[in-house]
Write a structure and sequence with these properties.
Helix content is about 35%, strand content about 25%.
Length: about 325
Amino acid sequence: MMSTKRQQKTVQSCDIVKRKKLNIDSKRKFYTHFEDLSNEIIYEIFDYLDIYHIYEAFSNLNKRFDNFLVSSTFPIKINISSMSKTNFQYYYTNILIPNKHRITSICLSNLFIVDFICSSPRIILTFIQLERLILDNIQLKYIQNIPNHLISLFNLHSLTISLIDKIQNKNNFYYSIFRLSTLKYCKLSFESYIRAKPLLISSNEYSSIEHLIIHNESTLDEFRIVLSYLPQLRRLYWNKLFEILRISTSFDRSYFDANRWERLISSYMPYLRIFDIQHNDNSYDQMTCNNLNNLFISSFWLKHQWFFTHQCYSRGYGKQINFYSTNPY
């Protein structure tokens, strides 16, 4: 009798173990391990990571990932913001140089690394597949000759430059950028001296830029001249300033010249849909304020359905005009 009970308990225990094992096996079927992912999905994941972190995580992990890092052709993005000199030397020697033919994007903001790479612009020329270059918060001395060298990078279509010091000659700076024949996107952030020499109007040289962002105080004359270099421009953002044009300016009365705006838009922005302007001037007389009622009322403005108004008021010890769009859309 006791033997029979022991046998029953043994059978029940075995059944419980089997059921638990089956449950575990069935749950495992719903688990996906990273190494089970296809190459295509892993490439997609790597696209969000800097190559330095990819090497740190997957180097010498197994043969498959070693092949990814050494023999694969997936594009590499470089984003160096903070890194010690020792780590960068290893990074440069063991990662950047062996993979320079696969690098498509570089973002530099570390002063030491910018100094290392930009002090000799020819280093950038080794990245023959480079498509995007971001130079963030750098000194002017490091980019004096870089644009001239970038001409040889035929895949470069996106350029972002942010300077921490003032430009003496915007003429040369703009011209060096506009000469990059494959550029489609360009973002420039810089300060310049007020009396800087303006760019000469283009007669036979044009840029391929389609999307331009400029953070810099500029005159209307400079704005008009820059546009003469950009026949393919589709999107423009100028100075906290094509189908869309938004401008916020101060202290330059040439922005009140409606006839000049009409010629500028007709010649260089024939597809403009939205014209949104706000202009402030803190020095005016009553005649100037009254004359604003007769501006921007020609058939050109009525045809586009762009309307404007203004306010004239005293502020502190001075007087101010606030001129702005009422129906920019």
